[in-house]
Write a structure and sequence with these properties.
- It comes from Lithospermum erythrorhizon (Purple gromwell).
- This is Oxygenase.
- One of its GO terms (molecular function) is heme binding.
- Keywords: Heme, Iron, Membrane, Metal-binding, Oxidoreductase, Transmembrane, Transmembrane helix.
- Its cofactor is heme.
- It is a single chain.
- Helices cover about 55% and strands about 10% of the residues.
- The chain is of the alpha+beta class.
- The protein folds into two domains: about 5-35; about 35-505, Cytochrome p450.
- The protein has a four-stranded mixed β-sheet, sandwiched between helices.
- Strand 5 (about 380) and strand 6 (about 390) form a beta hairpin.
- Helix 7 (about 140-165) packs parallel to helix 18 (about 450-465).
- The termini are far apart.
Length: about 500
Amino acid sequence: MEFSQTSWSILIFLFIFILFLFYLIRVLINLLRKRVLCDCEICQTYISSSWVSQFPNLCDWYTHLLSKSPTQTIHLHVLENIITANPTNVEYMLKTKFENFPKGKPFSMILGDLLGRGIFNVDGDLWKFQRKMANLELGRNSIRSYAFEVIHHEIQHRLIPLLDSFLGKEQHHGTLDLEDVFKRFSFDCICKFSFGLDPKCLEISLPLSKFSSSFDLASNLSAKRALHISPIIWKIKKILNMGSEKKLKKAIRNINVLAKEMIRQKRKLGIHSPEHKDLLSKFMVTINDETYLRDIVISFILAGRDTVASALTSFFWHMAKNPHVQTFILNEADKILGGNQDCITSCDKLRDLHYLQASVHESMRLLPGIQFDSKFCLQDDVLPDGVFVKKGTRVTYHPYAMGRMEKIWGQDCLKFKPERWLTENGQFSQENPFKYPVFQAGLRVCLGKEMAIIQLKTVAISLLRRFRIELVEEEGSSSSSPLFLPGLTATFSGGLPVLVQERWAKDE
């Protein structure tokens, strides 16, 4: 007897439903055995109620639970996940016992289709090799100069003209989604720097880029794999090529076509040409495998695009909330840079903008681009705060929560206060990276940290000196914290709609 397509669909649905039901029964049995989900009393109280009604974001709920824990660590048994905001635990995981807390296979599987064997998705020798190469290349003055050249060109010839166009000739101001603008800006920059490719996403017409949209979709769908109750659900959908997994497969196929074509074109033109200053050309000298090259560069695009866009969005959200901070930044810029708005032509002049540096770090303290990061324990271990970690357990450190801990930052931890980063004579002072793991820390500390800070400071001062940017908030929206969408990086729900005004027009 032949089965129709409808019959096969019904059988497949029943199969998935039975698997889901079986998993749900296992979870319920586990709950009955343990009776509680968390070790600490506060978790027992709050986990049974809906966090949605009390906290704007899931990360705010975790922050609340962690702040009530004596050790700043909680254990969600049903998820086999230990979450910590304790700096000593972070140092233990990222430095002291680094080898026992790798990324792990569960994480690698989730992002494997998008990142492949790229540096952010591997452990061991593959990670060591790529990190050594990246450290060598990113440390070169020529690479740093090229990165600044790309950033400066994108600001002067695209970002500023785009914001100028939203001022309008008849109207005094225009409305703009600044988060979308920063995503376009950072995507153009990182593609030029990594690939030698110019997507032109930030042209005044705000064109749609197939590469950018495919990258967005692939990132979001890959992140949503982690939201499934069990990985078996997305794995079955992948095998059957249905739903979100079908969309993910198509998006990654688009990315692969463009990436591999770019690699072939570079080989054809000659990678040793002095015109080829991008990161891909540097890696191609050593690596011949096209798929491996694709994985490496895609990983750099993911890191350099989304995190920078998130940090810029958060920074200007804070600036709009704290106009007095803008005044301090502008006064400092007038003293150091003078009155010429176009004088930032090198990295050197940015180093003396200490208050701006402090403001950028303070913004990322409260709203980090990566809100949490997880590792998987290889062998049974005990964290410095006494929490036992069983082999195979996921251990998550939470930069978002850490930035809001009174035990770490004091009673004014929720206040936007750049001064906490300054010494008595007004010099910027870096905090302990395990207290502030926004760029990770230890052996996996972000190699592009300094370049990212330069990019953030250059954009910040370039826009603040020309424009007054004000939020367009919906009635009843929360002013204390933005709402976030689920994803690999912090993305504002609804974007960041703003009014763009000429600074001089209102100051006169």
